[in-house]
């Protein structure tokens, strides 16, 4: 028997969020929650079966009028359609999710790799801000790790004798575990780190009164700068992943 259809907000809170929390990496779960928070003012009180192609188009137009990037709008609607797909799968929704045409992401930033000079400048800037930030920058640059799985890295995941870091399936984007070799410089850095917690990358926020915290998902400190920023360049942590892959291919 088909279950009773309900409002989007009720379904997300009681069914969807518990479902994805156990099946997604922490970074993916956080990204979906952020998208749902943006969607909430428009769709939270909508019955699931009243979200149509027309309402998706209206939402898309509204977000574009608010000067939201094409990529962000697409990610928000993809998340909404995933909610509806799950509702259909477990029979809260009779029909399949409405079809929708994604925006052409012309405003999407082009991914690029750092030059050797840029990487050295980033490392120098991070070193000036402290050992933890230098270690984080070296780790991102020389393992190709995502910032989400780096934030979740525990000391038990690092084998200094074998010079290997293990990324657990639970924290990886596609739920696939993998081992990555550590260069000698990283082995030394980790050997010198003070182990303040079960997590590897811990820093001391100014407002925390001496209590250490894990690095934020963006790796921004105080929401103002990346630890590898200098006066001539600024880029996000995923640039290191592109750099790692590009350098390996070269």
Can you describe this structure in just a few lines?
By secondary structure, the chain is mainly α. The chain has nine helices and five strands.
Task: Provide key terms for this protein.
three-stranded antiparallel sheet; single chain; mainly alpha; 250 residues
What would you note in describing this structure?
The chain has a three-stranded antiparallel beta sheet, with no helix packed on it. The N and C termini lie far apart (58 Å). It has nine helices and five strands. The model has no long low-confidence stretch (mean pLDDT 89). The longest helix is centred in the N-terminal third of the chain and has 20 residues. Helices cover 47% and strands 6% of the residues. The protein has 250 residues and is mostly helical.
